Amino acid sequence: MSILKVENLKAYYIATLYGIKRSVRAVDNVSLDIEENEIFGIAGESGCGKSTLLKVIVGLIKPPLSLIGGMVLYNSGKDYISPFLLSLEEFNKIRWSFISYIPQGSMNVLNPTRKINRTFWDVIKTHGSEEEKKNLKTITEEHIKALGLPLEVLNSYPHQLSGGMRQRVTMALATILKPKIIVADEPTTALDVVVQRGVLQLLERIQEIYQNTLIIVTHDMAVHANIAHRIAIMYAGKIVEVGKTRDIFKNPKHPYTKYLINSLPKIGDKSIRESAPGAPPSLLNPPSGCRFHPRCPKVMDICKLEVPKLAEIDSGHSVACFLFTKEVEEV
Amino acid sequence: MNLLKRYILPRLIQYFIVIFIGITIVFLAPRFIPLDPVISVINRITAYGAQYMDPEALEKLTETLKELYGLKGSIFEQYIKFWKRLFRGDFGPSLTIFPTPVISIIKNSLPWTAGLLIIAALLSWSIGNILGGLAGYFSNKKWAKVLSVIAMVIYPIPYYIMALILIILFAYVFPIFPIVGGYSIGINPSFSFIFSLIKHAFLPALALVIVGIGWWFLSMRSLTSTITSEDYVVYAETMGIPKNKVLFQYVMKNSMLPQITNLALQIGGIFSGSLVTEYVFSYPGIGQVLYMAINNGDFNLLMGIVTFSILGIATAALLIDLLYPLFDPRVRYR
Amino acid sequence: MFVILKDLFKYDKRFAFGFSVILILLFLSILSFFSPYNPVLWSLVPKNLPPSLKHILGTNSMGQDIFWNITHAIKNSILLGSLTAVISITIGTFVGLVAGYRGGSVDRALMSINDSFIVLPSLPILILLSTMLKERLTIAVIAVILSLFSWPWGGRQVRAIVLSLREREFTYTAFFSGMGTLKTVLKEHLPFVIPWVMANFINTILWAIGMETTLAIFGLSSLETPTIGTTIYWANQYQALLRGIWWWILTPVIIAVFLFLSLYLLSVSISEFLDPRTRLQRMRMEEVST
Q: What is the rounded average pLDDT of the residues C37-61?
């Protein structure tokens, strides 16, 4: 049963500066179904709209980002609710207790002039039940212990901790109320490899303890290979391929996915890695038709005119490419 | 211990450098300027008295004046002497109110200036920062934009012009407040004395506070709008923490910090402003005495006031700097 | 350059206002060259006349036409401000460049001197200096004295810019491709520093005119030269306000307010334009439109 549904989502950045109005089509007609208890990875180059997709999923829509169309639905157990349709108070109730978010560069999200335990208490006071509010100290301490972090961090200021530790504290902060869905944006970027490993293990541990759904966005395919159950590949604001991690790595379909997988180093293989020619397109005015066509080695005439629809070609494996499907996306 | 070495010691050193540079300027000023203060004082005495002075008496007077000004000996000896006198608090007698020592004139007027300065600085700092913080956080609200425009119009106006505008307004258009003096004459120290005190200090303080608020408002607004886009504020909002808490505990608490340092830097400017304002409103503080000293060519008094200002402002700035670690844990623990 | 000014004028109301007012004031100051009266002489016209067609801003108690007098005052004040700005920015830029590029103990020494001048109360010291020089005060001398306290702000800023530039990639590129230090500074870094210096220039003019006005109140300016400050000084000396000659005191006060406001708005608008965050956005926009 899916816990989160994204339907035909469109979200653009719209800005006016010195009289010129521009929109950046960061998320353009994206649909996803995310299952309960799975680790779902979203991959793509930087600037392909994956972070924006996450922000919209957690309901963080602030100018210049604006929602153009489509829907995000959370499965609350009884029925589907949408963060877009809730009042701020109703939305506040489900934030952190149902869905929580670990942002990019999460080592900088802690208030430098506030002790860390105060921030945990702020969260519990805002979203916790009466029971939880009463025991906020013990809940915080038990949570920190359960995640295997030292208790001393609670009584420190952020600048007293290392970057990796701050990142882990942020993860603890996001999971303090045991949410059903955790959304993490580039959790391993800007960390060195050893710390990266620690952070990934912590994420897996959280998922194991609380049996919740984890959505991870990163450009790092190795991270996806390590922990994701399913992966979506994003290119220029669109999902081009979705499938089980194994299928994506062993049997990539979309030409862009192929480039992504082939550019990974393999043990024992010393040949030069091939990457997609050209540069990712500007989302200010993306190419017509399939957005990958200017860089695609197998480009056909139809690719320049029509947008391919994401269609299932194998069980649980969907691709948006005219090599595999004739379905055209309606605009 | 670490705090002492890393934070307090550099500031103490800086404090002594400030005083050293300031006092040296005061020492050098009369010596590098083609005007001889001794001759100008003698000219003044002979011009006022219009009485005949025999050359011998004149010679003697010149000698005593030279002694008084510390103009004897090599420039290095003079410099050492200058510092020695400074430590004794000896600035010689005032020439206008002869022979009252300069130090006691300053002592009499200092509380007036200090009171006005501290009240004006604290009021403008807190009001300006709170309003600026709110306007920076709610920058899209209409009232925030209106406040910003008002602050932008007020801020560039010098204290003096602001004082003049207030005088024009309150003395001629709405005559509510007395425009001169420190208190009404003939009132005993009592509740009505205090009331009179406040009434008289109101306009000078208002001029200082209005201009001050403009400055603090604008700097706080830009600091706050920077802080508002910091990751930790954005994340606090994402976590759905109530707006009030975000504003005070996450935004203002952090944007206030640079304003404490700024207060230490600006205190000299506020002091300069209060000198001018006092003069305009004939408020009996240092500014008034300073004006008297300038008008009568009373170099002793002038030097005394300038030296005192340097010591006072540098000390005030140091104290504010030393209080800073109490507010910023990043400096406190390392 | 011209395009930038045009853009700012079109899309930034503050710039448009400041720029227009400054143009008007500059025009007034140019008018002073066609003044029918010598600003130094007294009793050229009847005294204390209220504004009329013949004397549009009236006359003062010294028998001078206030309108023509204020044109001289604006010119002299702007001249004084610009002179101070030139002197103090030269010193400040030099100190900032040396501190930033030499670094180490040179930097520490220069910056502690720099900061000392920021903390020191400027007005009392300036009063001391100008009292001592009272008989010899001219616009140029005042500008020199004022520079003593206006260079450190620029010095600090230039140093900060240099420190950030020094670590940038293109500096290393220039260095490793064999460009000399001096040439790197002049060719690669100066273009970054100049716009900031311009904003600072305007701020210094603003500060200097305000300070001269303040000194003039105490009678410590070149009293024969009409400036905005001395005009107010003479109006006060003759008790203009008390005697109801409001046009005498109000004219310089209003001119001063407009001058300060417009200079300030110009500097705010320019600094905002220089802000790397808005600049980056603009650059992206340009990329798109071309």
A: 79
The answer to whether C17 and B149 are in contact (CB under 8 A) is no
The 10 Å Cβ neighbour count of residue A67 is 16
Cβ neighbour number for residue B53 with a 10 Å cutoff: 14
pLDDT digits (tens, 9 = 90+) for B59-116: 777 777 776 666 677 778 888 888 888 888 887 777 777 678 888 888 888 888 998 9
Of the pLDDT bands very low, low, confident and very high (cuts 50, 70, 90), residue B188 is low
Does a structural domain hold residue B72?
A: no
Confidence check: pLDDT of B184 > 80: no
CB contact under 8 A, A122 and B254: no
Residues of B in Cβ contact (< 8 Å) with C218: 279, 290-291, 294
**What average pLDDT does range A314-319 have in this prediction?**
88
Q: B14 to chain C nearest CA, in Å?
A: 6
> Rg of chain A over CA atoms, in angstroms?
21
State whether residue A8 is helix, strand or coil: strand
Q: Which residue of A has its CA nearest to C13?
A: A18
Task: Average the pLDDT over B145-164 and give the result.
Answer: 88
Give backbone dihedrals phi and psi of C25, rounded to 5 degrees, phi first.
-65, -40
Q: Which residues contact A185 (CB under 8 A, 6 or more apart)?
A: A51, A54, A101, A102, A103, A104, A217
Q: Is the pLDDT of residue B230 over 90?
A: no
B244 assigned to some structural domain: yes
Residue C289, pLDDT score: 43
Scanning every residue of chain A, which has its alpha carbon at the shortest distance from the alpha carbon of C278? A17
Task: Give the closest of B236, B241, B330 to A112, CB-based.
Answer: B330
**Minimal C-alpha gap between A18 and chain C (Å):** 6
Angle between the N-to-C axes of helices B191-228 and B159-167, in degrees from 0 to 180, rounded to the nearest 10 = 130
pTM of this prediction?
0.82
Does the beta-carbon distance from A17 to C289 stay under 8 Å? no
Tell me how many domains chain B contains: 1
Q: How far apart are CA C31 and CA A24, in angstroms?
A: 52
Domain CATH for B135? 1.10.3720.10
For chain A, list the contacting chains (3+ Cβ pairs, <8 Å): B, C
pLDDT at B45: 64
- Can you tell me the ipTM of this complex? 0.83
- Confirm whether B50 is domain-assigned: no
pLDDT, residue C72, reads 93
Question: Using 50, 70 and 90 to split pLDDT, how confident is the model at B144?
Answer: very high
Measured between its terminal Cα atoms, the distance across chain A in Å is 29
* Pairwise CB contact (< 8 Å): B250 & A92: no
d(CA B256, CA B133): 9
Best residue of C118, C123, C268 to probe chain B, by most B CBs closer than 10 Å: C123
The total of other beta-carbon atoms located within 10 Å of residue B77's CB is 11
Inspect the interface and report whether the beta carbons of C125 and B157 lie closer than 8 Å: no
Q: Is the pLDDT of residue C223 over 60?
A: yes
Chain A neighbors of B231, CB-CB under 8 A: 103, 105, 108-109
| pLDDT value, residue A230 | 94
pLDDT tens digit sequence for B8-63 = 898 999 999 999 999 998 888 877 666 666 776 677 666 655 455 677 777 777 77
Burial zone of B76 (CB within 10 Å; 0-12 exposed, 13-18 middle, 19+ buried) = exposed
The string of DSSP codes covering A40-99 is EEEE--TTSSHHHHHHHHTT---TTEEEEEEEEEEE-SSSEE-TTTS-HHHHHHHBTTTE
**By residue range, what is the domain housing residue B223?**
103-294
Task: Let me know if residue B318 belongs to a domain.
Answer: no
C210 touches chain B (CB under 8 A): yes
Indicate the residue of A17, A19, A282 with minimum beta-carbon distance to C281. A17
A175-216 pLDDT, tens digit each? 888 888 999 988 887 777 778 888 888 888 888 888 889 999
